[in-house]
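Lab notebook, entry 179. We have the chain sequence and a SMILES string for flavin mononucleotide, and the next step in the workflow is to get a structural model of the bound complex before anyone spends time on docking refinements. Request logged below.

Task: model protein plus flavin mononucleotide, output structure tokens.
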Amino acid sequence: MDEIRKLVLESDIIIESFPLYFFGMPSKMKAFMDRMINFVSEYRAVNGDEATGRFLHEMRYPELMKKKLILVSACGYEETVDCYDAVIDQFDKICGHDNYTRIFVPQGGMLAEKTFENKIARYMVKFEEAGKEFAKNGKLTKETEEKLSIPMLGHNTFAQAINLNWDEPGVGPYGKVVK
Ligand SMILES: Cc1cc2nc3c(=O)[nH]c(=O)nc-3n(C[C@H](O)[C@H](O)[C@H](O)COP(=O)(O)O)c2cc1C
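Result returned:
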């Protein structure tokens, strides 16, 4: 953690990348977050939140406020709708909704499937575009965030693919569906 904390302090952009586990972050990611507690100062009865009057932590390192945070996560479900509510709620409370970037992608398992190689390559183009947008503006628009969450496969193809994964593991995770 000493090394990681040093890297965080030296970086302009922090990217937290994780698969969605039970509608939240995996335990290792959570452990990392918990170990970052020393980035905030002790909890004191100062610095109340304007809207609620609630006391808040101050930052131990004010330069942290200038850094950008990007969350990148894939989930296994067909769509991201509702899947990330707990993650968004958590980070909204930590950072404020407009102070971090969300890249949430459905059908994560499909992105490792060789059979979909060409489809995946076409699907990836919008992420490259989003990277350029981020480099230029330091953030993504709500429209771009939404666009990145559009599923790669249609409902019926996805249904076939996930079932093949379990029924015929010998042909590869999601094989035989799309040539
Ligand atoms: C323990 C565990 C819990 C998971 N929980 C969810 C979940 O709540 N919602 C979801 O859509 N996918 C869930 N998944 C699927 C993963 O998000 C999906 O496998 C991952 O994004 C794809 O990356 P991978 O290739 O590293 O598995 C879960 C997977 C595991 C192993």
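Notes for the group: The pocket of flavin mononucleotide is lined by residues 19-23, 74-77, 83, 108-109, 112 (CB under 6 Å). Worth checking against the assay data. The mean pLDDT is 90.
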